[in-house]
Design goal:
With about 250 residues, the protein is mainly beta. It contains 2 helices and 14 strands.
Length: about 250
């Protein structure tokens, strides 16, 4: 699945951070068992090659407490020479309402009977708790209708199953009720959402080009089951791949 998203930046001193549009929860130490990983679980892994690193999905094979953590990795990563013994990698996990991250080292890449990695068992794991109605930083195209204004274009800055923050370049009137449309892909299938929402907050700012942007926090109303499911699936993917983008 491909969805437009911002590339979250990790602050110095931490490998797990929240979206900058919200107050940052402080990462706390966590035990390996708190991640509740199971054999066969997919786990995002970032490798050091490239300017921003390569991000892909591995699959948990198992672990030996205090010694080694075993995962598979797509064959293309190994064949392209993007990962070698002794290199550092960053792994992330999302379980329930907690996001986890830990750095470790590749002890050995094995190729028999299939290609898999021996990673050093993590010594330090960071965790943050996600608030009940969380949102995730995104960059999705949006079309807004409010009152007699239609076809207002803008973007969605963050989104959740209960609401979103939108940015447009023309102000809304006193209308508190809007219609918000957006589109993205889930597992290669185009999804179009047309949602009713109430404006709950607003602010404006001028960028370096002198353009004024108007941001509105909105609350979704009367979500249909399919809309709620699509938003949930989008959030799960974003949270799974980019837990540091949680707002």
């Amino acid at each position: 699945m491909e969805t437009p998203s911002t590339e979250p930046q990790t602050p110095a001193g931490s490998i797990l951070a929240s979206d900058t549009t919200a107050s940052r929860p402080t990462p706390v130490p966590a035990a390996f068992a708190e991640m509740h990983l199971k054999v066969g679980d997919k786990i995002p892994i970032e490798i050091p090659r490239g300017v921003k690193g390569e991000r892909t999905l591995g699959k948990v094979i198992g672990w030996v407490e205090g010694s080694s953590f075993l995962i598979t990795l797509p064959q293309r990563i190994i064949m392209a020479g993007l990962l070698k013994d002794g290199e550092h990698v960053l792994l992330r996990a999302f379980t329930g309402r907690s996001a986890f991250a830990f750095s470790t080292t590749v002890l050995k890449i094995e190729h028999y009977p299939f290609t898999y990695l021996h990673l050093r068992f993590p010594e330090k794991i960071e965790a943050v708790t996600v608030r009940g109605s969380f949102r995730h930083g995104v960059r999705l195209p949006a079309t807004i209708a409010a009152g007699d204004k239609t076809g207002i274009t803008g973007s969605i800055l963050n989104i959740g199953t209960a609401g979103a923050r939108i940015s447009i370049t023309e102000p809304l009137t006193d209308e508190s009720s809007i219609q918000l449309a957006t589109r993205f892909e889930l597992q290669g299938v185009p999804v179009v959402l047309e949602l009713n929402a109430l404006v709950r907050s607003s602010k404006s700012a001028t960028d370096e080009q002198g353009v004024t942007h108007y941001e509105y926090g909105v609350e979704f109303k009367e979500l249909q089951p399919n809309d709620h499911m699509a938003l949930g699936n989008l959030l799960w993917y974003q949270m799974y791949m980019y837990p540091e983008g949680v707002a």
